[in-house]
Amino acid sequence: MQLDLSVEAPWPGDGWEALAARVADAAASQAPELANSRLVASLLFTSDDEVHALNREWRDRDKPTNVLSFPMLEREDLLALPAEGPPEMLGDIALAHGVCAREAAEKGIALEAHTAHLIVHGLLHLAGHDHEISETHADAMELLEINTLALLGLADPYGDRT
């Protein structure tokens, strides 16, 4: 059993919970620290307004964004987490529908494909990966994203790797 992902999906359409589960399984195969069955994370498919409010409150950025991640474990603690024991909250992810839909349209890709990428991105942030630390960290995180999406049959979202 993999990460227990609790999904609240008020976005239009169906299949968001199933997509999230597939993405989480693929991410855990590429980032084994996510494969601990004790881990619990929440994923909120919500509005631009709600993500804007969260971004303003928690990141001091007064605008909506595509995805926000709120880790609850330090990476060292996650890596040291034994397989046996009670559930452990990994963190929360929120996705903004309008921003995600606009970005997908601009990229000329399906909303589901872009959303899958952002879920992977958010899960990796919950696992302690951070593309803002350095170019080396960014490259490593991008490679994890690309490999995870490839398992799902999705194209490289960065388009600059061979």
From TrEMBL:
InterPro entries: MetalPrtase_cat_dom_sf_prd, YbeY, YbeY_CS. GO terms for cellular component: cytoplasm. Its EC number is 3.1.-.-. Its cofactor is Zn(2+). Zn(2+) binds at H121, H125, H131. PROSITE patterns: UPF0054. One of its GO terms (molecular function) is RNA endonuclease activity. It is found in: Cytoplasm. GO terms for biological process: rRNA processing. Coiled coil: none annotated. Binds 1 zinc ion. The keyword ATP-binding does not apply. SUPFAM superfamilies: Metalloproteases ('zincins'), catalytic domain (SSF55486). Its main location: cytoplasm. Keywords: Cytoplasm, Endonuclease, Hydrolase, Metal-binding, Nuclease, Ribosome biogenesis, rRNA processing, Zinc. Pfam families: YbeY. PANTHER family: ENDORIBONUCLEASE YBEY, CHLOROPLASTIC. Belongs to the endoribonuclease YbeY family. Single strand-specific metallo-endoribonuclease involved in late-stage 70S ribosome quality control and in maturation of the 3' terminus of the 16S rRNA. NCBIfam families: rRNA maturation RNase YbeY. This is Endoribonuclease YbeY. It comes from Paraurantiacibacter namhicola.
